[in-house]
Amino acid sequence: MSKIFEFEIPFISEYENNLVSTNKVMINMKVPLENGEHIVTSELLDLGIVKGINQNLKCQFTLWYVYNEIDKTFKLCSSDFISEKSFKLQIFDNSGSEIYKTSTYVDASNISDKYNGIFNKDIKEMLNESIRKANDLIIEKAKDLGLTLLVCTNCPQIVGEDGDNLYVAYDNDIYDGFYEEGKEYSGDLKKVPLQSVWGGHVFFAPADRFANVIGSTGDHNIGGLSWIGLWESQFGVANICTSSGYAGAPLCNLGLFYGGHVISGMVAQQVPYGSNNVYIMPICPAHNNNNNIHMAPIHYNTGVWLNNYHNP
C-alpha cells in the first residue's frame, strides 16, 4: 500500500465586499506517493456567495506532482513557475459551470464574461495571493516527507559576460560540466544550453546522502559565471562546506568553495547523457576532489537542480 502525503492548509479567511462574501476555506488533499507523474484534485468546497443573485460559489484545487520511487524524489512547482502544471484554482456556480480559473502565476487568470464585473481587480489579487501562499505551504509541508524535494522554478537569465549563451558539455554521452571553447574533448561532443538543463531547486532531507559526479572536478569560470556563483545567485554567499564535520569526511579546505556537482547516493559516478539528476552544492576542494567518499547536507540542504537533457 502506497504512502499518503496528506495535508490541510488555509486558503482564505472570511472576506466580504459589496459584490461577494466568502467563507473561511481550508484545503485538504490526499496525495498518494505512487511512482510516476500524477494530478490530484480536491473535493468541491463551499467558497461563498455572489450577493444580489444569491449565487453559491464552490471552489476546487488541482495539484501536479511527480514521485520517483527509486530515487525517493518528490517534484512540485514553485509559486512563480510559469507552467500549465502549476497549482490551480477553479470556481464554479450553482449549475456547475466554471466561472473563474487561475493558478499561482497571475497571467493564468481566466474569467467567464457573465461574472466579469463581480471578480474585480481586488478579488482577483486576493485569490491569486491566497493560492500562492497555499502552494508555498504545500512545499513547506512536503519538506517533512523525508524525501528529496525537487521544486521547478523559472530559469534565471544565464549568459556569459559577453552576452552569449552558456553551454554544458557531454563528452561521449558523459556529463562534463561547462563547455569550454578550445578544450579538447575525447569523443562525440554534445553542447546543450544551460537553460535547457535547468530544473530548479532541490531540498535535501536530513537523512539524504550525495556523492560527486565523476569527471566534473573544479569550478571553472566560463563566460564570467562559475558553478558556485550560480548557487550563490539563488541562495546567498556560501561560507562553509556543506558536508563539513560529517563523520569520516576529510578535513575541509576553509575559505574556498566550489559549486560541486553531486548526485544522490553514497557512490560517486559518471552521469550518462539523459539520465539522473545533477545537483550543485557548495563544497570545499577536499570533498570536490575525492570520489571515494560521500557527503551529507549538514550546513546547507538547498541546491541548484539540473535536469539531464533528454532531447538533443
Biggest β-sheet, characterized?
15 strands, mixed
Shape: elongated
Please, what is the oligomeric state?
Answer: single chain
How many helices in DSSP terms? 4
What is the alpha-carbon Rg in Å? 23 Å
Average residue-wise pLDDT: 87
Low-confidence stretches: none
How much beta, percentage-wise? 35-45%
> Strand pairing plus helix content: what structural class?
mainly beta
Strands, total number? 20
Helical percentage: 10-25%
Order of helices and strands: EEEEEEEEEEEHEEEEHEEHEEHE
Distance between the termini: 38 Å
What does this structure look like?
The chain has helices at 121-142, 194-197, 227-235, 285-288; strands spanning 4-12, 15-16, 20-22, 25-32, 36-41, 45-50, 55-68, 73-77, 88-92, 98-103, 110-111, 148-152, 167-171, 174-178, 189-193, 198-203, 210-212, 258-264, 277-283, 302-307. The chain contains 4 helices and 20 strands. The model has no long low-confidence stretch (mean pLDDT 87). The chain has 312 residues and is mostly beta strands. The two termini are 38 Å apart. The longest helix is centred in the middle third of the chain and has 22 residues, at 121-142. The chain has a 15-stranded mixed beta sheet that branches. Strands 14-13-15 form a 3-stranded antiparallel beta sheet. The chain has a two-stranded antiparallel sheet with strand order 1-4.
